[in-house]
Amino acid sequence: MLKVLVVAYYFPPMGLSGVQRTLKFVKYLKNYGWEPTVITTGKVAYFAHDKSLQSELEDTGVKVIRAEGAEPNSLLSNFGTVKLPSEFVRKTFNRLSQTFFIPDNKVSWAKKAYKKSLELLSEEHFECVFISGPPFSLFDVFSDLKKIQNIPLIFDYRDLWVDNQFSFYLTPLHKIFHKRKEYKALKAADKVIVTNRRIKEKLIKDYKFLSFDDVYIIPHGYDPDDLQKVNRIEKPNDKMLLTYSGLFYEYITPKYFLQAFKELIVENPAVGENIRLLFIGYLRKENQKLIKQLKLESFVTEYGYLDHLETIQKLYMSDILWMMVGKGKSAETVSSGKLFEYFGIRKPIIACLPDGALKIAATEYKASFITEPDNVNQIKNTILEVYKLFKQGNLPVPDEKFVESFNRNYLTELLSKQMNNVLKV
Fold first, then answer.
1. How much of the chain exceeds pLDDT 70, in percent?
2. Cα distance between residue 143 and residue 190, in whole Å
C-alpha cells in the first residue's frame, strides 16, 4: 500500500456535500493501492452533523487525527449546539470575516493542521499529501511544506478560490492578496484537481505557468453503496412529490420557484392540489415567512435537516427533484454535489440554473427540465409541463452511461491514477 496524508477541514461528523467528496475518496482509495490517513478538525460548532457519515467513516477503519483550532467554529463549540443563523446574519458575518481574514477565518486551524502534518511526516513515510479546499487557508499554509519536505502536494478545488460566487473584496488590495496567495499555492502544487471544466479554464487563464495537464477534472458524484443501503419507502399519497434537498443562501433562493408555484395554483387549482413541495434541510425563517405570505403552507412539507441516508430515502420517494443556483458572480464555475447526488437517484430534475458547468451537466443527464433561475413564468410553465408528463406516465429517463460516470468508486480510481502520476515526476 502507498500512503497518502489527507487534510480536510470539512469531514465527518460534519454533514453536507463538501464533506462527502473527501469522505468517499478516503473510503475507496484502498481499492486502488492507497492507504489514507486523515487530519481534520476536532470539536467544532457546526449546524449540520451527520451520524450516518460518521458511521461510514468508522467502518472504513481509516486512521483519523483530529486537530483542535482557534477559529470561530472551534471557539463556539464551547457554547453547545449552534443553529443556522438567518441569511442576513450569515452574510454579514461572512463579509466581516472576508474583510479581516485572508484567505479565510480557518487560518488558525490550517496552521494547527500543518504542525500536526509535520509531526506525522517526521514519524511516518507518505508518498503524497492531498489537501481539500475550501477553506483555502489550507492551500496557503501547506504550500510551505515543499520548503521542508520534498513530498508531492495535490490540491483539490471543490470550488473556485479567487472570484468564487461568494467572494467579497472590500478593496482591490484584498483581491490582490488572495491572488498572490493562490499563485504561491499553485506554484507549490504537483497536481491540481478541480470539479469542472470552467474552474480548470479559469485557473489556466489566470495563472499562465499552469499547463493543461497540471489541472485535472474529477467531478462530484454519488456513492452506489448509499443507494443500496436505504430502505425504499412508499409515497404517502398519489400526488406528484417535488423535492429540494439542501440549503438556501446568497444567490440560491426558493423565492422564484415559490412565486411560480403560487401563480400555477391560482391559474390551475386542480393541478396545484395534486402537487406537493418537499424541502429537506434548513429552510431558514425568512423562507418559511415567504411560504406563509404566499399561503402555500398546505402545499409544503418541511423535513428539516436529515442525515445522508435519510435524505436519499426521501429523494427516492419523490417523483421530481429540484435544483437551483442563482446568477451570482462566476456562476458558470459553480459546482454542487447535490446535482450529482440527484443523478444517482435517477429521477427527473427541474434545474433552475444559469449558463455554466452545472447547466451543461444537467443537459447531458437527458432527464432535466432546464429553466433560467429567476424566470418565474418559465418555471411555472415547466412545473406544469412536468406535471402533465407525470400524469401520462411519460417522464423522461436519464442517460445511464452518463450517470455511471459519476460513481464515487470510479472517480476515486481517477484520483488514484493522478496520485500515481505525481510519483513518477
1. 95
2. 11
Query: In the block, which residue shows the cell 467579497?
Result: 168
Kindly state whether residues 178 and 211 are assigned to the same domain: yes
Range of the domain at 22: 2-221+408-424
The Cα–Cα gap between 271 and 75 comes to 50
- Report phi then psi at 168, rounded to 5: -140, 125
Identity of residue 27 = K
- Asked if residue 289 and residue 251 are part of one domain, the reply reads yes
**What is the phi-psi region of residue 52: left when phi exceeds 0, alpha when psi lies from -120 to 50, beta otherwise?**
alpha
CA distance linking residue 96 with residue 58, whole number of Å: 37
Q: Does one domain contain both 398 and 418? A: no
Are residues 418 and 334 part of one domain?
A: no
Structural domains counted in the chain = 2
Same domain, 340 and 304: yes
CA distance 121 to 142: 13
The string of pLDDT tens digits covering residues 292-304 is 999 999 999 999 9
Per-residue pLDDT tens over the stretch 127-156: 999 999 999 999 999 999 988 888 999 999
Q: What is the C-alpha to C-alpha distance for residues 339 and 75, in angstroms, rounded to an integer?
A: 33
Q: What are phi and psi of 385, to 5 degrees?
A: -60, -45
pTM > 0.85:
yes
Both 106 and 215 in a single domain?
Answer: yes
Q: Are residues 187 and 306 in the same domain?
A: no
Indicate if the pLDDT at residue 38 is higher than 80.
yes
Predicted local distance difference test score (pLDDT) of residue 166: 80
- Asked if residue 253 and residue 183 are part of one domain, the reply reads no
Q: Grid cell 483555502 — which residue?
A: 136
CATH number of the domain encompassing residue 27:
3.40.50.2000
What pLDDT, on the 0 to 100 scale, is given for residue 83? 66
